[in-house]
C-alpha cells in the first residue's frame, strides 16, 4: 500500500514512485512465499493530491502498465498471480485510480500477461456499475479472485442490502468458478456468529458445515 500515513493507497500507477513500488513488490513476494499464498493484490494507488484525475490519467496509465509488466515478469519466476482490484470512488476512496472492471480489463489487455488477473469485489462493482450478472459473465475469463460484501453497509451477505448473494453464488458455480471467495466485509457483531449466512447457504445446497456432502456421509 505504500506510505499510508502519507495518504498513499498503493504505488503501481503513481508516477515517480516506481523504485518504491518495486521494492514493495519484492517484500510482498517474500511474505507471499512465507505464507504459501500464490496471489498478490497489486494496488494501483491514488491520484496525487492537488491534481485533477483527467489531467494525470494518461501518465498514470503509462506508469501502471510499465509496473504491471515488471510485476508479471517477477511473479512468473515465483509461479504467482498478480491481481488488479477496482475500488469504487463514490464511497470508499474518491481518489483511487482504478475504479471499474472495464478500466481494469482494458489495462490488462494492454499489458497482455496471462499471470495478471482481475480481483472482482462485488461491493465495489455494484456501487460503480451494478449489472453484476452481466459483468460477472463478461469478465469471468479475467477473474483471479472474488471478494464479497453487502451493499451499501459492507456487512455480511445476509445483512439488509441490494445484493442477492445466493443467486450470485449459484451464478459463480454455473460459470465454473473454482477459486476462493474472500469475505471482505465488516462483521456487524461476532465474526463466527456472522458466518451464519455461510452455514445456511451450505444447508440450502445439501452440504454440511465445511462444504462436505451429506450424501457422502
Structural class call reads alpha/beta
Enumerate the spans where pLDDT stays under 50 for 5 or more consecutive residues.
none
Oligomer: single chain
| Average of pLDDT | 94
**What is the tally of beta strands?**
5
In which order are the strands of the major sheet placed?
1-2-3-4-5
Q: Quick one: overall form? A: globular
Query: In this structure, how is the largest beta sheet organized?
Result: 5 strands, parallel
The CATH topology annotation reads as: TIM Barrel
Question: What's the domain count?
Answer: 1
Broad CATH class: Alpha Beta
Helical content band: 40-55%
* Name given to the CATH homologous superfamily: Divalent-metal-dependent TIM barrel enzymes
Radius of gyration (CA) equals 18 Å
Number of helices, counting only DSSP H or I runs of 4 residues or more: 8
CATH level-two architecture: Alpha-Beta Barrel
State which percent range the strand residues make up.
5-15%
SSE string: HEHEHEHHEHEHH
Distance between the termini: 45 Å
Structure description:
- The protein has a single domain, classed as Alpha-Beta Barrel (TIM Barrel), CATH 3.20.20.
- The mean pLDDT is 94.
- It is globular.
- The chain starts with 17 loop residues before the first helix and ends in a 13-residue tail after the last helix.
- The chain is built from eight helices and five strands; from the N terminus they run αβαβαβααβαβαα.
- The chain has helices spanning 18-35, 53-77, 101-111, 122-128, 132-139, 165-175, 191-194, 196-204, and strands spanning 39-41, 81-84, 116-121, 143-148, 181-183.
- With 217 residues, the chain is α/β, with parallel strands linked by helices.
- A five-stranded parallel β-sheet has the order 1-2-3-4-5.
- α1 (18-35) packs across α2 (53-77), α2 (53-77) crosses α3 and α5 (132-139) runs parallel beside α6.
Amino acid at each position: 500500500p505504500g506510505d499510508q500515513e502519507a495518504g498513499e493507497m498503493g504505488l503501481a500507477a503513481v508516477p515517480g514512485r516506481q523504485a518504491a513500488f518495486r521494492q514493495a513488490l519484492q517484500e510482498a513476494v517474500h511474505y507471499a512465499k512465507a505464507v504459501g499464498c500464490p496471489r498478490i493484490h497489486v494496488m494501483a494507488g491514488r491520484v496525487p493530491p492537488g491534481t485533477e484525475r483527467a489531467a494525470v490519467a494518461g501518465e498514470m496509465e503509462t506508469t501502471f502498465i510499465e509496473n504491471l509488466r515488471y510485476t508479471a515478469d517477477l511473479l512468473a519466476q515465483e509461479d504467482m498471480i498478480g491481481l488488479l482490484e477496482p475500488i469504487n470512488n463514490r464511497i470508499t476512496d474518491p481518489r483511487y485510480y482504478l475504479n471499474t472492471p472495464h478500466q481494469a480489463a482494458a489495462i490488462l489487455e494492454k499489458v497482455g500477461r496471462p499471470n495478471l488477473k482481475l480481483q472482482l469485489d462485488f461491493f465495489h462493482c455494484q456501487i460503480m456499475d451494478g449489472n453484476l450478472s452481466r459483468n460477472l459473465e463478461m469478465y469471468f475469463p479475467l477473474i483471479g479472485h472474488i471478494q464479497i460484501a453487502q451493499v451499501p453497509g459492507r456487512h455480511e451477505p445476509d445483512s439488509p442490502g441490494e445484493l442477492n448473494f445466493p443467486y450470485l453464488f449459484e451464478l459463480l458455480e454455473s460459470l465454473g468458478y473454482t477459486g476462493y471467495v474472500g469475505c471482505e466485509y465488516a462483521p456487524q457483531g461476532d465474526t463466527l456468529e456472522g458466518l451464519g449466512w455461510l452455514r445456511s447457504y451450505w444447508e440450502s445446497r445439501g452440504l454440511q458445515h465445511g462444504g462436505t456432502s451429506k450424501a457422502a456421509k
